[in-house]
Fold:
Amino acid sequence: MSWTTSPPIVFLRKIGRRLGFNSCIARALYGDGYETHYDLAFQDLLKVGDCVWDVGANIGYYTKFFAQRVGSQGCVLAFEPSPINHSKLFGAVGDLPNVLLFNYGLGAADEEVPFQQGADTLGATSRVVSDSAGGGGQVNVRIFAADNLIKKNFAQMPNAIKIDVEGFEPEVMCGLNITLGNRELRLIGIEMHFSILQERGLPDAPRSIETLLCRSGFSINWPDSSHILAVRK
Structure:
């Protein structure tokens, strides 16, 4: 496994977060647009004709790029459970012929869960919460296991998956258990929300996800300290 998910580094990240050092360190290592390394690496590995799943599509910023990259021969399935975000997503990419929009999220099972709308302008921090979280803007949303969607022919087998789900990564990966073994799926990009996973009492989740990906036949790379890029060997 990588040093990024080793227990000592995860612990140091926690301390750095409390002291406010992490953002400064990230800028020093990767520059102000540190996510650019990951974004470009993921998009460079997409092919014309690919089926891409944009899990946690938010308002469609990446959905547009993916749709352009795969062309008319490919398609993008954009999953966004937030009713508010989904409305903006529809306005941004709803007219693209190779994009399919789904107003639900992915998880470990087919169920309804409480969801907190993010207070930020873009709603980028919107996420699944526990029943006891409370707070304004909380609604119930539907989520489905990816394996079930494919089994029931509700969704096409993906060639690439982008996952940005604000700390719900373990559940999404659990629902992909069978799909991960399909060789048609060759690329997975995940934004790993270490701080939220810590809050949830899941500090070992990033390492567990690494292990799952490796066992499923993927090579792991970290373009930066928060993003996994997994490529089929």
Q: What stands out?
A: The chain has a mean pLDDT of 89.
